[in-house]
Amino acid sequence: MMQCTDVHDRYLFRLITKKAILYTEMVTTGAIIHGSCLDQLNFNAEIEHPVAVQLGGSDPNDLSVCAKICDELGYDEINLNVGCPSERVQKGAFGACLMNEPNLVSECIAAMQESTDLPITVKCRIGVDNHDDYEFLHNFTSQIVRTNTPTLIVHARVAILKGLSPRQNRTVPPLKYEHVYMLKNDFPDLEIVINGGIKSVSESLEHLERVDGVMLGRAAYDNPMITSGVDEKVFNEAPQSHDRKEILSNYLRYCMDQYELGISYNRTLKHVFGINKGMPHARQYRKLILESMQKENLSSNINNLVSMV
Ligand SMILES: Cc1cc2nc3c(=O)[nH]c(=O)nc-3n(C[C@H](O)[C@H](O)[C@H](O)COP(=O)(O)O)c2cc1C
Predict the structure, then answer these.
(1) N or C terminus: which one in the chain shows less Cβ crowding within 10 Å?
(2) How many CA atoms lie within 13 A of 276 on its CB side?
C-alpha cells in the first residue's frame, strides 16, 4: 500500500507474524530504471522473508529489467499490479486498465519469467468500468493462466477508471466475493487470493474455505494487532507474539535506532498510530505519538507510550 507498507511497517508486522507474506507498495518500473526509488526497494533480509515486491508497469522489457533487479535484491516473489485505478497510473497505461489487455499482461509476465525464476504473480480487480460481469474476469484469467503464473490476487471490486478517485474505488464499487470463489472453482490449479474489505483473521478463515489465500490491506494497516492470530490460526505455527506491550516496545526501540541512522520519526512512528485502536487510552496514546514525531522526543515518551497499550 503506497505511503504505508514501507520497510518500517514491514518490520512492525514481522514482530507480529513471521508467516504472512508481506508486500511492498507498488514501485513503478520508471522509478526503478531511473534510480529514484532505492529506498522503496530496500528490505531487511534478516527478518522480512517471505517478502514480495509489487511492480507497476506495462512495458515487457522494462518489467523484465526490473524483475532481474528485484531477484538480485533477494525478494521472494514479484507481483504485477493490474488493479490500481489512479489517473497517474492510467496515464502510464498500467494498473487496472491492463485488465482490458490480457495479451499484454501475458507478455509482461512472460518477459519477467525470462529474467528470473521467482514466481511472477498478478494482483487484479474483478473487472473494470462496465466490464463487471464474471465472464470478463474469467476471460482475463483464461489468458493469463497460459503463462503459468502460479497466483492471482483479486480485489473483489471493479475499478472505475473515470469518475471515481482511488479512494472511492476502494469503497464505492460493491464487493463481489462470489466472483472470486467462482474463479477458484473454474481454475482449481491456480492459487487464488481474495482481497477487499476483510477485517479479521476469523473472516479470513471463512474465505479460506473457498479460496487459497487472503490479503488484508487497510484493516491490518489501521490496526496491526488484528494479524496477531495469523501464525497460529492460519499457518498452525507458534505465534510470533501476542503481547502488544512487547511488540510496541520492540518497535519503538527500532524507531530510536532508525532515528540515529537519520530516519525521521515521521516515517517510522506513523505505523503505530493504530496499535491500540479501540482501547481505553487510544486517544492519549495517539497524541503522545504525534508529540514524539513533532518534538523528536520518543526516548522520553517510550515508557509512557508502552504503558498505554
Ligand atoms: C493508502 C493505500 C495505498 C494502496 N496502495 C496499493 C498499492 O501500492 N498496490 C496495490 O496493489 N494496492 C494498493 N492499495 C489497495 C489495497 O492493496 C487493497 O487492494 C484495497 O485497499 C482493498 O483491500 P482492503 O479492504 O483489505 O484494504 C492501496 C490501498 C490504500 C488504502
Answers:
(1) N
(2) 23
